[in-house]
Amino acid sequence: MAGGATGGHLYPALAIADKIKRRDEDSKILFIGADKEVGTDIIGASGYALKTIPARGFNRRNPFRNISVMRDLAQSGARIRNILDEFRPDAVIGTGGYVGGPVVREASKKGFPSFIHEQNVLPGVANRMAAKYADEIFVGFEESREHFAARRKVTVTGNPVRRGFITAGAIDYRAKLGVGAKNMSVLFFGGSQGAERINEIVTDMLIGVESIRDIDIFFITGRRGYYDVSKRLIEAGLMDSGKIRLIDYTEAIHEYYAAADLIVSRSGALTVSEIAVVGRASVLIPSPNVTGNHQYYNAKTLADHGAAVIMDERDLSPTMLADELLKLDANKQALNAMSRAAAERGRPGATDTIYDAIVKRIGQT
């Protein structure tokens, strides 16, 4: 397994690895990661073996700093070849990022069956470069197919999501989290690290728009933003009502997805896939600070089917966001239709599809 160094690349890799282990407990799995990357801690905590290579992403703002990046890339080739010769894998799976691409390339040159998985609608640079070396290309969205030259190699699998999202409907999380049966509940979050601008807009809305305060609120700020948000809401006297549940970070975010009627969030590939699997209406605010504006295209996979509303962060105000929420609160029929449309886009069997395709390709049972 090779991917990184962000959670968006690593969590799908871990989901695939976990599936392989559940289906074949004697399988041996090795992750290849980058030196000095925080993401490698995620792999270690999951109990998988890890070897690292000297690799870093390119600096798009200052190309002169890429001299050392190119040097590391050249050195990493020999390191990857040594790892492959020692491990002798039956399959090599890259999930994007500056580690995944070089590993898939070297594996293909050595004749090892190689696969890539692309999470976003618009493929990243590493996967676009690795595509010609892969025996099969797995993609998270149907819309991704047209962005690969070798379309015959593309299989639409969906994005692997954690098991909690797939089984979320079996448990009454509204009751568990104390959400009223009649009130609309909304989950706000900006990703695992939080998003400063979303935190600002949501906090301003809660403080400045009184009509929004009848809604049950789950607000996941990220650890970095929690203090500032909580301080402002306490000063405004809004933390005593019981209507606002403020959370810094949670591993059990699927519980909040399931307890919410509406999700307001960024539109990373995994977030969009999770929303669809759980079947929830959403207001999506794509990050304007990502390569190729790819979060916007992820969001469109839901919005184009009536499952989501896209709001541009650059034009967004607390009042605009409140108006959208109140409009949906007043039209439960529309809200329910959005949820059904999202569920129709969900692919809860993504990891099984990927596993079965790999096994079929390498000729094992």
Describe the model:
- This protein has two domains: 7-161 and 348-362, Rossmann fold (3-Layer(aba) Sandwich); 165-345, 3-Layer(aba) Sandwich (Rossmann fold), CATH 3.40.50.
- Helices cover 44% and strands 14% of the residues.
- The chain has helices at residues 7-23, 39-45, 66-87, 97-109, 125-130, 163-166, 173-176, 196-208, 226-235, 253-259, 269-278, 294-303, 318-329, 332-345, 350-362; strands spanning 30-34, 49-53, 92-94, 114-118, 136-139, 154-156, 185-189, 216-220, 244-247, 262-265, 281-284, 308-310.
- The strands form three sheets. A six-stranded parallel beta sheet has the order 9-8-7-10-11-12, sandwiched between helices. A four-stranded parallel beta sheet has the order 3-4-5-6, covered by helices on one side. A two-stranded parallel ribbon has the order 1-2.
- Helix 1 packs across helix 15, helix 3 (66-87) crosses helix 4 (97-109) and helix 8 crosses helix 13 (318-329).
Number of strands: 12
Number of helices: 15
Cα radius of gyration in angstroms: 21 Å
Give the structural class: alpha/beta
Task: Indicate how many domains the architecture comprises.
Answer: 2
Largest sheet: 6 strands, parallel
Helix content: 40-55%
Order of helices and strands: HEHEHEHEHEEHHEHEHEHEHEHEHHH
Strand content: 5-15%
> Which architecture of the largest domain would the CATH scheme give at its second level?
3-Layer(aba) Sandwich
Low-confidence stretches: none
| CATH C-level category of the largest domain | Alpha Beta
Shape: elongated
**Mean model confidence by pLDDT:** 90
CATH superfamily of the largest domain: Glycogen Phosphorylase B
Span of the ends, CA to CA: 20 Å
The strand line-up of the biggest sheet is 9-8-7-10-11-12
